[in-house]
Design goal:
This protein has 19 helices and two strands. The protein is an all-alpha fold. Helix 8 packs antiparallel against helix 9 and helix 13 packs parallel to helix 15. The two termini are 30 Å apart. Keywords: Coiled coil, TPR repeat.
Length: 529
């Protein structure tokens, strides 16, 4: 079983061994890196707040506020997505804090509430640093009444915890991840053992754990395993399937997706190790042929050969484990997203037309993320040599695009290239010539769609337009060679070569490669048989 891979020049190379399903490390490394870079599929994290804000406009209830305000309980406000606002519309100069009112207030909660009001106005106006400064002031007030000379923990048990939590949200909004994590942990540590009802503590801990989970996902590099543990802890669950909050489910899905990609990257290192061991086996085997079978050197090398072969078997076994683990994580991420998508689509069907539902920003966002994960799954299946599954994932993506038009052109271009290559690979496994030709014709359709897409992406006459079109023509020429339609292959190769030569120069390696292909095709055209 063979599966096609593309190098940086657009060449097609075979990368999967039929016996063990292993792929070439060098091909996989360059191919996967190129695809991910071109597709730009690892965009900003979808936060719970962003998800909730998109849901809010179509919900009957308000999900952005909870509880009721009173002086003895600091309620947990939900941070909303930052909106750019006109300061004048907020009542004058929002940077001026009412210091007199602050001094005259007679409870710490009133003082903190005044500062928090300013912090929210500044936050909504987009001045995140000024909002952060206000919340630092809030923390100072909380410390004075919680640990200072005015300490009264029994009357105000949650002052300090809530102040740390508010500050952590400001740090998270500014992408100051270490500080956000630090203040989340301080918020948990400051929760008193007495003075608060169990339901209040549980509600507070849930919000802190969710924010911790988000912050760990925003870290560089992200920490998906730790993030997932906090997200599960927020609802007291043992697995992500049991999570109830849709926004938390979205975060959990991203955790599983990142864990799957990490395994996919480890597979690359395993393939490199396999290649090295394979080369060593070949070198030792070649050396043994030149030695006397009874010599000590022969015995030493024979033992070395057995050890190396055992290492190779172990490495292949480890690679298989990684493939299964990556598939498990990506499957779980997809399942969670599909569950949320189904729920949201059902909810929106009751409120709007099908066209409005499909174009809703929330549905667009969810399907885009699902397609990104499906694409990574297709790469994994290609590496594992499961070409039918690979084609299935890619066809699912193109089906979603037809129905929702939600994925980026860069990702779609990569999907179409991969789909064409996978269909060629699938065709090569068919013993029936008609089935093989059917798969190859589907591949031509994918490359034809790719050419149309590239014409939309890049302005005609530009270098990107020419080189992307030349690549598609070259790939189509390869398929025509497989179909033994030599004249059509020659036509596509010649057009691709002319385009490459015009923009890259006649000495380009891509031009040289096509010249070689054209000579080979000409030899078939001019053959006497």
């Amino acid at each position: 079983m063979m599966t096609s891979r593309y190098d940086s020049s657009g060449n097609t190379s075979s990368s999967t061994n039929a016996k063990d399903g292993n792929s070439s490390a060098s091909n996989f490394d360059g191919y996967a890196a190129q695809l991910f870079q071109e597709a730009d599929i690892d965009g900003p994290m979808v936060s719970r707040n962003a998800f909730n804000s998109l849901r809010k406009e179509t919900l009957d209830e308000d999900i952005s506020e909870a509880g009721s305000e009173d002086e003895e309980q600091i309620i947990l406000e939900h941070t909303t997505v930052v909106q750019q606002a006109d300061p004048a519309a907020l009542g004058g100069d929002i940077g001026e804090l009412d210091e007199l009112a602050l001094l005259l207030s007679d409870t710490p909660y009133k003082k903190m509430k005044l500062r928090e009001k300013d912090a929210r106005k500044l936050f909504q106006a987009g001045d995140l640093w000024a909002s952060l400064k206000c919340r630092m002031d809030i923390l100072g007030i909380a410390k004075m009444y919680s640990t200072g000379p005015y300490c009264n923990e029994n009357k105000y048990p949650m002052l300090l915890s809530d102040a740390h939590f508010k500050l952590s949200k400001s740090y998270a909004a500014l992408q100051c991840v270490p500080q956000a994590i630090d203040h989340c942990n301080r918020a948990l540590e400051a929760i008193p053992s007495l003075g608060m009802s169990n339901s209040q503590v549980i509600s507070f801990k849930k919000e802190v754990h969710i924010l911790l989970g988000e912050a760990l996902l925003m870290a560089s590099p992200p920490k998906p395993q730790a993030s997932l543990q906090y997200l599960l802890a927020s609802e007291g669950c043992s697995c992500s399937d049991d999570l109830k909050d849709p926004g938390v489910r979205i975060l959990a899905a991203q955790c599983h997706a990142i864990l799957g990609i990490e395994k996919l990257q480890q597979i690359s290192a395993t393939r490199n190790a396999e290649d090295t061991l394979n080369q060593r086996v070949q070198q030792i085997s070649a050396k043994l042929l030149t030695l006397d079978g009874k010599s000590k050197e022969y015995e030493r090398l024979q033992q070395k050969l057995e050890e190396t072969q055992n290492e190779l078997i172990e490495e292949r076994g480890f690679g298989g484990v990684l493939v299964n683990e990556a598939r498990l994580q990506l499957d779980k991420a997809t399942d969670i997203l599909m569950f949320v998508i189904d729920e949201e689509e059902q909810r929106l069907r009751k409120k709007m037309s099908d066209e409005e539902r499909k174009g809703h920003p929330l549905i667009q966002l969810l399907w885009r993320r699902a397609c990104e994960i499906l694409f990574k799954m297709s790469v994994l299946e290609g590496v594992a040599g499961r070409i039918k599954n690979q084609v299935g994932h890619l066809e699912n993506i193109t089906g979603v695009q037809e129905g929702y038009n939600c994925i980026s052109q860069g990702l779609l271009a990569c999907v179409l290239k991969e789909k064409g290559a996978a269909l060629v690979a699938l065709g090569s496994t068919q013993s029936d010539s008609q089935l093989q030709q059917a798969e190859l014709k589907k591949a031509l359709g994918a490359y034809d769609d790719l050419m149309d897409l590239q014409a939309q992406r890049f302005p005609e006459g530009s270098a990107k337009y020419a080189t992307s079109r030349a690549e598609a023509l070259k790939l189509m020429g390869n398929v025509y060679v497989a179909l033994r339609q030599w004249e059509r292959a020659q036509e596509h190769f010649n057009e691709a070569m002319d385009m490459y030569a015009s923009y890259l120069g006649p000495t380009s390696s891509l031009v040289s490669d096509l010249q070689t292909r054209i000579l080979e095709v000409n030899s078939y055209i001019n053959a006497p048989f």
